[in-house]
Amino acid sequence: MSHDFEAMRFAMVESQLRTTAVDDLRVVKAMGHIPREAFVPAEKSALAYADMLLPLGEGRRMNLPMATGRLLTELALTPDDHVLVVGAGSGYSAALCAELAKSVVALEENAEIAAIGADALRALGNVESAAGPLTEGWAAGAPYDAILVDGAVEHLPGAIIDQLADGGRLAAALVEDGMIRLVYGRKQGGSFGATAFADALAAGLPGFEQPKAFVF
């Protein structure tokens, strides 16, 4: 069965992005251009533009288009930026970053999930795929002008924040008090703080559980 992906992409932009404060025209243009269906399992291609956490396999899911769009809008990537995507999954968000920035490192620890969109990422020419623990970031490519943590996490490891350039920006979905909040922060003079700007449903990333405090 064939699908009109172009029409589905247009509908996503009109109904899921323009109605939810995704108002950076460069982000909207990129999301209206990059074929999301190239980054989902073939048997789920009909759901590529659905307003849902799309299963990628092994418990991992692709973020809602709205969450991806809001995070990228806050990051405000420029054509000169060097970007790290943590938890790149099948590569969709990394592909969007590649259209908005100069160069991208797509970090993913699950080889099977990374393979879903590997060919599409490779064809872009400005994305380096990296394999390793998500919580450690990718120091070999640091410093980064911007870091996108592409999913919901309970905390932001210092190892990742340390890889930001001075003045560098980071956006993520942070789990706080049982709620998922989209947050944005900037590193200045060695210090970093993040502020929530929206509540959203976002796919969880493994390994970012908050360390449990000992109770005596």
TrEMBL record:
The keyword rRNA-binding does not apply. Gene3D superfamilies: Vaccinia Virus protein VP39 (3.40.50.150). Pfam families: PCMT. One of its GO terms (molecular function) is protein-L-isoaspartate (D-aspartate) O-methyltransferase activity. Keywords: Methyltransferase, Transferase. The keyword Transferase applies. GO terms for cellular component: cytoplasm. GO terms for biological process: methylation. Belongs to the methyltransferase superfamily. L-isoaspartyl/D-aspartyl protein methyltransferase family. This is Protein-L-isoaspartate O-methyltransferase.
